[in-house]
Design brief:
single chain; alpha+beta; 10-stranded antiparallel sheet; two-stranded antiparallel ribbon; 14 strands; about 25% strand
Amino acid sequence: MDLESALAASRMLCTEHLGERLGRQLAELARPGFGLWPATAGRAATGRCRLGGPALLEPGVAWPEVDGLALSLFAVLDMDELASWAGDQAPVRAGVLNFFYLDLPHRFELSDRRICTVVAADPTRALEVAPPEPLTQLEVVSLHARGGVSVPSPYAEYSRLVWERLEPDDEVCEEFECDPSGFVAERFGEAWLQDPGRLRADAQAFGWPLMETSALKARPEDGDRHLLTLSSNHGSWSFPNGGSLMFFIPKPALREGDLSQVFTEPDAW
């Protein structure tokens, strides 16, 4: 399925359950993204996309650290393979993207942006760089990326702010006192969970994030763009309480390719 077909299918699903007016408003918010799965014999790796392993850095680029502590290379996204589908959800001039995070976050405030960074590299110049000692290289898991589109989750904490910006028709106003969030959850929630085009995987790149946490500094409904969500690498790491780690970037920085403004958001920790 190509991107236009995926967007059309999402629009059809939204209007089927929410009506023409509200359904189209919601469908206009759809964002392209990828579900990421471990590659298998029947599910080929997508370029150089992977969890763990060495970083892919251009010559002369130092391994990132904070206060003398080296950050761990958590994931690599090969934008040569992903950019055409991701469109304006991906940073410009991305090449390959290296996602680093401090594997000892308890030493810093989680709001400290120094504990994460994303480093882009020209794929024609990038070299494999092992982590500096004594940092342990995380297990390599090659990733298969499958494109899809996503709309805001009816159950995520930020979604209510999305619904409040929509303009429901008289039926919604009369039945739900002009609160589209209740209408969307009741009429669309089950369909959203069963949507075959929804991004469902242990890891997700781009698209709308699936967030459960109520205390968020990220504002996906107001300009922050989701880059990557990780839950585990099937062996080397897992996050507290079965939660996940999300990487975000403000929309202006995304458009400029300014990766220095990337920040992380722990979910359900």
